[in-house]
Specification:
Order of helices and strands of chain A: HEHEHEHEEHEHEHEHEEHEEHEEHEEHE
Strand content of chain A: 15-25%
Number of helices of chain B: 14
Radius of gyration of chain A: 22 Å
Strand order of the largest sheet of chain B: 1-2
CATH superfamily of the largest domain in chain A: Response regulator
Shape of chain B: globular
Oligomer: heterodimer
Number of strands of chain A: 17
Structural class of chain B: mainly alpha
Strand content of chain B: under 5%
Number of helices of chain A: 12
Shape of chain A: globular
Number of strands of chain B: 2
Order of helices and strands of chain B: EHHHHHHHHHHHHHHE
Radius of gyration of chain B: 22 Å
Largest sheet of chain A: 7 strands, mixed
Largest sheet of chain B: 2 strands, antiparallel
Number of domains of chain A: 2
Structural class of chain A: alpha/beta
CATH architecture of the largest domain in chain A: 3-Layer(aba) Sandwich
């Protein structure tokens, strides 16, 4: 009898796995605050004019990171334009994405579909070919079609600026990085961050800990604590939760200061005493740009093959595209004022700018990266790889293609770019 | 004062109508529970149920997608009916599925130029072999060292997961994928054809149904099948009767693992045409298959039906997120409640409830 119950318990365990496996990523905060606002019945669209845009998210909209930032962007455009109607599906498993796109197009009559994870790329392209009269935009990929464009707001410049601050603030000379998946986007960000760290502190190292998950607070915490145990006192990260910021704040509150940088969404609230700055994105204005251009007929289902938004501080690759990336742990606060005096106290000798404090250097670099006449780029040679071999010749820069396919770490990074 | 005690008594015989009645009762209670949840969320439960049914079974599109999801569920589920009949509690079909996908990808990468009449049968064979091999590990551990196969087969799922990740992030990462963790696309010859404008890779579907029939015949019409059933119902009796327990245990595990491997092969060669990270290959088909087998009361032919039913529920559950704009967690609750009640109802097939005052 007892043995049978043990069996039953085993099965129950397996079923729990099924549940978590069926639903994709776990949800911490279901979007209860956003009930039927978008339900078709709630608004009365004036038939011909209405454009319906639908969003497919990889994580839960309550993730405080990537998916949340996209959803904030969706709500921004939805509120702003009467001719626009939106819908979304969250926590969509990559294996099932094709079906979600199909349903949005066929049953929900979406004109435009945004898919917001690199894992959705093939499914989006397949749908673009299947539905030539619909518009598709894939975020973070590289495949395009006459009716499918690509969108990305890239953070490598901001990571470089965060790196400058991290290099100036570390006392142990060890900086840590909690990283989701070893793909070019992350390698690029880690490299840019390390370039900044080493510019401020040429002896410092950046240790990388891969967690192989976009959304896994438990793994992120484990990775952050392991880095701290290794002597790291500043943490940056690329994954979709605020865990690293929370861990840094906990250590700081306990009397062992660990500083961090927010990622994707405003995270200052989670680390008032430890969050220095961060990377923020405003997807709303990118979505607004795309959707108004579709509405006005600038974009058609025939001319998206060359539409590639690659949002940078200068507005990015698409001429005239709005600036979608911002420095800070909160909008309008590029640097936490608590760290201002420390950053002003650290000075370096720049070959061109002369002696300059890190604080001033940051704002100088922002200016240089925004100015089309200067366009300072952190990936300008001479740059060595991890083994010390010269990888980028003096004066040379990486092309956009090279940045998009980068698979090697710069000198000073500890860890493997291809684990 | 003594409170009445509830006692479960094992049934010696059970009426024929009982399984159907307990299943219906379980489903009814599940629906009631879910209706309450929907009502709390402010959605009319009847509208929600109607959309789920329509999403899974009630439209041509929903039906196509349900059938697409049914294919891996039949393969893995039928294998599990056999394993459970032989009292080998293989919880690791998900891992066997992934190893099948790896083996198939290996062949597709190694021989892209073979004509498809050679390559596709080869994919089926190695897909089976991969899953069989993975299932043989817990089987050998069980028969040689008496290690509980529930634990080992489950743990091997995680190993298989890591193996897929290692390959797509490492040596098999594609050359034209710009560093993304996916292999290059299979050559056209290695792509299992689908019914036009659907994702139903029909050769796999046909093989799945044929195998379900074969496993049914094996169980009911052969000496080996008889031995499997006796071993499952009473291992001691089978030993006294001189049946080779080790052989039977190994065999049912190999077949069930092989079928799960075929399911994984079908996903990579019939749907994705490349190896991708594990969560992008299978949203848990190997685990859902456990319920497929149990719901079918370990009858391989009934597993075809229960695969279709569960496939439809999963597809329909997804549909309500889109149609009613409900949070994804609602869908997870929906799936979870149904499965929980259906499994719980199984208890009443085997036990009688008695109140003792």
């Amino acid at each position: 009898m007892r043995k049978n119950f043990a069996r039953l318990a085993m099965f129950a365990m397996a079923f729990m796995l099924v549940l978590s496996a069926c639903g994709g990523a776990p949800t911490t905060a279901p979007a209860a605050e956003e009930p039927a606002a978008e339900a078709p019945a709630a608004e009365q669209p004036s038939q011909e004019e209405t454009l319906k845009a639908c969003f497919i998210y990889v994580g839960p909209i309550g993730d405080i990171g990537w998916t949340n930032a996209h959803d904030v962007g969706r709500r921004y455009v939805d509120d702003k334009y009467d001719w626009l109607e939106t819908a979304y599906a969250e926590s969509v498993p990559e294996a099932d994405s094709e079906r979600f796109i199909d349903r949005f197009v066929v049953e929900e009559k979406c004109h435009v579909v945004f898919t917001t994870s690199f894992g959705f790329m093939d499914a989006t392209l397949a749908a673009a070919q299947k539905y030539p009269d619909n518009y598709f935009f894939h975020v973070s990929g590289y495949k395009r079609a006459p009716n499918m464009g690509t969108v990305m707001a890239d953070f490598y410049q901001l990571y470089y600026l965060n790196g400058l601050m991290a290099g100036a603030l570390t006392k142990s000379g060890k900086v840590g990085y909690v990283a989701a998946h070893p793909i070019p986007e992350l390698v690029r960000h880690i490299d840019a961050f390390a370039l900044g760290v080493r510019e401020a502190n040429p002896e410092a190292t950046v240790e990388v800990n891969w967690i192989f998950a976009w959304y896994d607070p438990a793994k992120a915490r484990e990775a952050a604590e392991a880095l701290i145990a290794n002597g790291v006192d500043v943490l940056a990260f690329t994954e979709d939760t605020a865990t690293v910021v929370q861990v840094a704040e906990e250590y700081t509150a306990k009397g062992q200061p660990v500083y961090s940088f927010g990622h994707y969404s405003p995270m200052a609230q989670f680390g008032p005493n430890s969050l220095v700055s961060g990377q923020l994105v405003d997807w709303g204005i990118l979505y607004e740009d795309i959707l108004t251009k579709i509405h006005l007929g600038v974009y058609t289902t025939k001319n998206l093959e060359t539409v590639d938004y690659w949002g940078l501080l200068s507005g990015g690759m698409n001429l005239g595209a709005p600036v979608s990336v911002h420095l800070g742990g909160d909008f309008d606060t590029p640097i936490n004022p608590a760290f201002e005096s420390q950053l002003k106290a650290v000075k370096i000798n720049d070959p061109i700018l002369g002696e300059i404090s890190i604080y001033d250097l940051i704002f100088k670099r922002i200016e240089q990266m925004k100015d089309p006449a200067v366009l300072f780029d952190p990936f300008t040679g001479p740059i060595n790889d991890q083994s010390g071999a010269l990888k980028i010749q003096p004066g040379q820069r990486l092309t956009v293609f090279e940045l998009n396919t980068i698979d090697w770490f710069v000198e000073g990074v500890i860890g493997k770019a291809k684990p | 004062m003594k409170l009445p005690r509830i006692r479960f008594e094992k049934r010696l015989t059970s009426p024929r109508w009982l399984p159907v009645a307990s299943l219906a009762g379980g489903l009814a209670l599940a629906m009631l529970t879910i209706a309450i949840i929907f009502a709390v969320l402010g959605v009319n439960p009847l509208v929600a149920f109607q959309r789920i049914f329509q999403g899974g079974f009630g439209s041509a599109y929903g039906l196509q997608e349900t059938i697409t999801k049914t294919i891996p569920l039949i393969l893995a589920g039928v294998g599990l009916t056999l394993a459970f009949k032989g009292r080998m509690y293989n919880i690791g079909a998900e891992g066997q599925l992934l190893i099948g996908a790896i083996f198939a990808t290996g062949i597709a990468r190694a021989f892209p130029d073979w004509p498809s009449f050679l390559l596709i049968p080869a994919l089926f064979i190695v897909g089976f072999l991969g899953g069989a091999l993975w299932a043989a590990i817990p089987a050998v551990l069980k028969t040689r060292f008496r290690v509980d196969e529930v634990l080992t087969s489950l743990m091997l799922v995680y190993v298989a997961n890591e193996a897929v990740k290692f390959l797509v992030y490492g040596p098999w990462r594609g050359s034209d994928t710009r560093g993304f963790p996916i292999t290059d696309e299979f050559s056209a010859a290695a792509q299992i054809p689908s019914i036009k404008s659907t994702r139903i890779h029909y050769p796999t579907l046909i093989v799945a149904i044929l195998l379900a029939i074969l496993v049914y015949l094996l169980l009911t019409r052969t000496k080996l099948g008889y031995e499997i059933r006796v071993t499952g119902e009473n291992p001691d009796a089978s030993r006294y009767a001189g049946m080779d327990y080790q052989k039977i245990a190994l065999l049912v595990m190999i077949i069930s693992g092989g079928l799960a491997g075929l399911a994984g092969m079908g996903e990579v060669a019939g749907i994705h045409f490349r190896l991708r990270p594990p969560e992008a290959i299978s949203p848990g088909y190997g685990f859902t298959a456990i319920i497929v087998a149990w719901l079918a009361r370990l009858n391989p032919l009934a597993a075809i039906l229960t695969s279709f039913l569960l496939g439809g529920l999963l597809v329909g559950g997804d549909a309500i997120q889109i149609a009613l704009n409900l949070p994804a967690a609602t869908v997870q609750i929906f799936n979870g409640v149904i499965l929980l009640f259906v499994i719980a109802s199984e208890l009443f097939n085997q036990y009688k409830l008695r109140l003792e005052v």
